[in-house]
Automatic annotation (TrEMBL):
Species, as recorded: Candidatus Brocadia fulgida
Pathway: Carbohydrate degradation; pentose phosphate pathway; D-ribulose 5-phosphate from D-glucose 6-phosphate (oxidative stage): step 2/3
Membership in a protein family: Belongs to the glucosamine/galactosamine-6-phosphate isomerase family. 6-phosphogluconolactonase subfamily.
GO molecular function: 6-phosphogluconolactonase activity
GO BP: carbohydrate metabolic process; pentose-phosphate shunt
UniProt xrefs under NCBIfam families: pgl (TIGR01198)
Documented EC number(s): 3.1.1.31
Annotated keywords: Hydrolase
Reaction catalysis annotation: 6-phospho-D-glucono-1,5-lactone + H2O = 6-phospho-D-gluconate + H(+)
Name of the protein in its database record: 6-phosphogluconolactonase
Gene3D superfamilies in alphabetical order: 3.40.50.1360
Amino acid sequence: MTKALVKREIRVVANPDELSHQAAQEFVRLAGEAVRAKGFFTVALSGGSTPRGLYTMLASDVYRKQVSWTDVYLFWGDERCVPPDDPDSNYRMTREALIQRVPIPKEHIHRIPAEREDHAHAAGEYEQTIKTFFHLNTGEFPRFDLILLGMGDDGHTASLFPGVSVLEETSRFMCSHYVEKLGAYRLTLTVPVINQAEHIIFLVSGASKAPVLQEVLEGDYQPQRLPAQLIQPVHGRLLFIVDRMAAGKLTRTGV
Ligand code: 6PG
């Protein structure tokens, strides 16, 4: 399979704090553009410690007042199949780092109901939430203004892990699946939904990500092994904000 050439920007910054600043500035900019253009901003959030740094930064005095939170609508790119107050919950992490510190109306927060016993039904319920919000007809995909993504050291993103069947999903918006390596169920947006976004921003930090980031960005196209390579916006923009440690094995950052 040939490697698709995707227009993307790789922005290397000094450290995790600068990564969070740069990501917060992008968030503020994109939210402002969307609200000016259409009156609202839709974003699908990611779990993980690197994205959490952004949420904390957005809630800080430096950035909190630069976003019109009453015009922001939150979704999630993936969720662990645990209750919303579980330490593993992406929703709980976001509530603590961001939601409870900014004036976003609670009806603007579209949490994935991943605690449901029937994971597949929960995925279908969330898909309906998205269809209703975006007023979609059959066969149409949502276009989020922004989808935030992290990257695992195995090349996963959202809950799209190496070798799982959901990597090939072409029509559903959200799927539930058992992740062998975690011994746990996850719910995740699918590749076609992510790739419809206007802006996709990866946040990658730390030396442990350097080998996989180099493979994802500069290596052969092997999306089953490196699911992050599947993220190729159809008409939007792809930005990697990475710190110097994570960029340590990159040979070129201009592509
Ligand atoms: C999750 C995320 C996952 C995460 C990466 C990177 O639910 O954990 O969706 O894709 O973003 O594993 O996480 P770190 O930034 O903590 O390395």
